[in-house]
Amino acid sequence: MSEFHKKAEECSMWTKEAGYLIEKARALGIPLAWDRLEKQSPQCNVCEMGLSCAKCVMGPCRIIPGLDRDKGVCGAGADLTVARNFGRFVAGGSASHSDHGRDLVEVLWEIGEGKTEAYQIKDEEKLRRLAEELGTDSKGDTKTVAKGLAERLGADFSSFGPGLAFLARLPKKRLELWDKLGIRPRGIDREPVEMLHRTHMGVDCDPVSLCLAAARVSLSDGWGGSMCGTEVSDIIFGTPKPNKTTVNLGVLKKDHVNILVHGHSPVVSEMVLLAAKDPSILKAAADLGAKGINVCGLCCTGNELLMRQGIPLAGNHMMTELTMVTGAVDAIIADYQCIMPALVDVAQCFHTKFISTSDKGHFPGAERFHFTPHNAKALAEEAVMIAVRAFGNRDQSKVDIPVEPVSMLSGFSNEAVLGALGGTPGPLLDAIKAGSVRGAVGIVGCNNPKLRQDECHVTLAKELIKKDILVLVTGCATGAMGKAGLLLPEAAELAGAGLAGVCKALGVPPVLHVGSCVDNSRIIHLCAVLANALGVDVDQLPVAASAPEWYSEKAAAIGLYAVATGITTHLGLPPMILGSPAITKLALEGLNQVLGAAFIVERDPVKAAQLLDKHITSKRLALGLSAGNGKEAAA
Ligand code: XCC
Ligand code: SF4
Questions:
Q1: Which residue among 187, 269, 349, 497 is least packed, with the fewest CB closer than 10 Å?
Q2: Which candidate, 63, 21, 100, places its Cα nearest to that of 360?
Q3: Which pLDDT does position 16 carry in this prediction?
């Protein structure tokens, strides 16, 4: 047994390469997230329950009913404290996605104004199609159409616009329900700001009202900011088409300059990719002995490049620190979100340069650039040159890339999926009706060091496809599925007979990669398309969502907008709401009566798959369809 395999075997981590690199980091005295988690443990139980509050300086308060501390100084009890905390948590996630979406709309506007040369319209057809859908000029010259569309979407961020443009995609019944509940989102910026206001001491003191407001905030993200992010990114950088690429740490190349792009925005990473093809920069790399410049992705900006350009994915959230422990990473170029501040410290233990690119995301100790649509090209070239020079300082004797890359397919935009089916949702609906595809589950999101890395993602997906449930995957779940080989057509072998047959006929995997975190908007859009085609509301579809290893505020926003859209959502870990039995009950049961969907919390992925299967079966039966997958007898 090789040294690598021995160490990996001994290690308790899920992925072998992670185990190996964690050991290596420990030997070098470099602390990682798992070590810091250990030092933080046991974590504060009051915070975990959502019962601590530091929203004013009469506090901080800990609400501990059993200990005769049932109210904060202001008089807020457990339910209100949990609701206020959860509202702000969701507002944080929504604001992050939506501010990212805004960046794309701004670039589109700059293109329309003729103010940037660096960015162009790659998908003119989608530009015009969207302009027509949203009722802006779709016939003029490209710039006019781009400007008109950008201004229409820009108006959705304010409070005085005509109302969120993409809401027209929803079934009428869902919009009527939102109006009845008062949760139709009004402005993309307005909703999170209003949540900050509502949760100030002495504003909204009704926990249920706050929970409904949180749902409205999340909808401004899913049907607003995130959808802008996805649709406009497609217009500027191209709508994804199926492409073959690779995933895993093994995508790093010992004889190349290795650049990892990290964060979320394609605005920067697409420019880095272009700069890495510049002949003069390639020559500079060759002069230092490099065979080329290898740009790979991390996290969601990695997913963006994977979807559109087939750029290999080096890893997901919990792999980000470890990439540098290979000694092979020359630079990490990062924009915003999910970039652990620890990365700068780890980089300093190696020759790796850490470069930050967003004016919103400062990382002390990093080389700091401020990318704008005007300087993007020049700055990307400068950043890539920093990586090239770092390659010159790399100690090749210390390079240690412990695994080989794994092949995968990416690029399953809704356009690509429906296009492959002849342009209409009909064939997909037929497969669902026939029971060969019994339903679909979107597995989204992060890793969390509290869980065995990737295990929940992979186990859940395998269990679901076995039951003829198609899986759509986004964000950091992608790295997990890819490494496990589930993003290849051959994985159809692991699926039930019905799903396997469909996958083989179409040559697609049973787990389809549909993009980054903001691209969960593709999933809710597809659900709306299917519901409209069937003439039902979204909550009647045999679909569900799952975030088995989630960690971030954004994941909470995604989960909530999925539920508010009518899609029951599984979470591997509970949000910090357990301190309020009333709100917990609302989340797990009550929402079913209100929205036709609710949360399921289950840490064990096998049990979670059973619960999701049960949910899908009940939706099928309610639609008058067979349970499918040989379940008729049981049903
Ligand atoms: Fe972040 Fe989007 Fe989560 Fe990954 S998956 S850890 S949010 S990068 Ni969206
Ligand atoms: Fe305490 Fe109320 Fe202030 Fe929160 S808002 S810190 S519960 S006094």
A1: 497
A2: 100
A3: 82
